[in-house]
Amino acid sequence: MARRPAAALAFVISLAASAAWAQGGYPVPNVTLVTHSSPGGGSDVFVRTLAKYLGPKMGVSFAIENVTGGSGARAVARVAQAPADGSMLYVTTPTYIQTTLLSKPQFGYDSLMPVVTVFYDPEVLYTRAQSPYRTLADAISFAKQNQGKARWGAANPASLERIAMERLNRVTQARAIVVSYEGGRDQMLNVMNGTLDLGIGEIQEMVSQIEAGQVRLLATLTANRLPGLPALPTAKEQGVDVVVTKFRGLAGPKNLPPGVLKAWHDGIKAALADPAYQKEYQREGLVPALMAHDEAAAFTAGFAGDVGRSLRELGVIK
Fold it and tell me: What is the pTM (predicted TM-score) of this model?
């Protein structure tokens, strides 16, 4: 029998999923959510918490798969080649856009279909509790007076955090050494043991350490102060003009059927309204930013354009 073209096969899969949806319920009972984050990293924490509340809303069992390496490229490739039936999705952050622009992998962010944007995830700068730095100005002052000796942590080389730290370095002329890590957890451990002077990350990665008094927050990289942390000043308030927007969402293989897309939007909308989940994501500093497929696609394209401009300004790409 002649082999069907890929486009025709994708259409058949889409029709099959739509038919299953028409019979009632999500078309598949089990869904794998793939993240490029290592266990304990920001995306890993986000998706495991989300799955706990989303499963009952959608009537689906979720499995989390950590596909690390390649600054997210391996995870994106895994999902891009999956069946378009709603059985596998990728946990999106700006990393998959940056990786595409920087390294041009076979499967980039545009190989996936944005399904839904869920949160904005504020980035914060932090140091260990025993650090001599009481403010962001203290950390920057040390770096400027000891150029080439201060060590600042960031996530993997293609991450938004790495770009933010490079911008911070450039704006302040600190000339600190920026060190990359595969995940936020590894970076945080090196901040806490004194290997790094300064780290960047999401509140959800360090909630326990914040509450235990093991880390000290120095600034948020948002445009305005965080509702949950009103005493934490922005970097801009402290004279450092660096503002970063990070999002968290889900994307899948292209040609997902409309019923699957609607199920995700409706399921996540219900989960975000759950008081128990609200308590958790507010504790982690996450800001709801629900966008359905069409809006999420436009947002992703706009974000990619902004990132491209930032990378060109930094001289990373032409």
Answer: 0.76
